[in-house]
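ARCHIVE CARD
Drawer: 12
Card no.: 0347
Subject: one protein chain, sequence and derived structure
Cross-reference: see card 0346
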Amino acid sequence: MRTALPPTVRPAVRTVTGPLDPYTVRGPVLAHEHLVLDLDRHGDRAAVLDPQLHAPAVTGELTALREGFGLALVVELTCRGMGRDARALARISRDSAVAVVAGTGWYYAPFHPPEVRQAGGADVGALTEILVHEIRHGIGTTGIRPGVLGEVGSHGDRLTGAERRTLRAAARAALATGLSVATHAQLGRGGLAQLDLLTGEGLPPHRICVGHQDLLDDPVTHKELAASGAYVSFDTIGKESYQSDGVRLRLLLGLIDAGHADRALLSCDISRHAYLRTEGGQGYGHLFGSFLPRLRAAGVEEETIDLLTRRNPLRFLTGGHFSP
């Protein structure tokens, strides 16, 4: 059950530069992105967005999207063990004048840092304490507090033991702090298992976003997730090597036609420097410049576009307390 806030309390989105009143957000939100990232495990430096080398290009793209499309907010889901840099996020946010939400939690098992194994033998309680402390006191010594748990992950239809523990810790930390949880479901698989585990800890579905569902060509699963009240994230838009945007469009239109437009989130998940516009990639703006025009051409009205790109992510971030 959703708990109503007292009339005098307005929900706030916690950004890297301070609290943001969601009622002041007039432009669209990118619901699942990376601005600073390091997933390099083989020395090729491909899955990297370096805070020094690539930050100028990232900042330039966000600035252009703010000026051209009104981009207002980016949900940045680089969490623990993924090369997160809170100070760099704050610089990018200030320089681009685009608000940024930072994440916390743990990615899927191959990227778990040693602390997952070391903290109380990966005890769920000890892992929860790590997350709650960071949410309440800030990332490292920065004082910058995360505004979402994510992207907390698993890979495959069955979660590993470590993934179950980190996801349970995320759910418990969410309940303790009021934040919502965004997941990484590798290639879209395992989303229902994630939902069952998170709700099993008592977290309401409307505070859960199941990630990468546009990589899973399974409308039945999407509708089941949405019907539960969880958000269904179509967040790799433009990554044609994984899935064509034509398939993404069909899946999203199916979800909208089934009456679940209020459960979908959209983004591009820029996770390699080759995806940046300066390096010939599709960039963060692919959603606005390419995919949304196709959605409009398919007959989706502007009110629904606003729902998908602004109101839904704000409701997710505020735990359902944002009611425009």
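Annotation on reverse: The chain has one domain: 20-317. The chain is about 40% helix and 15% strand.
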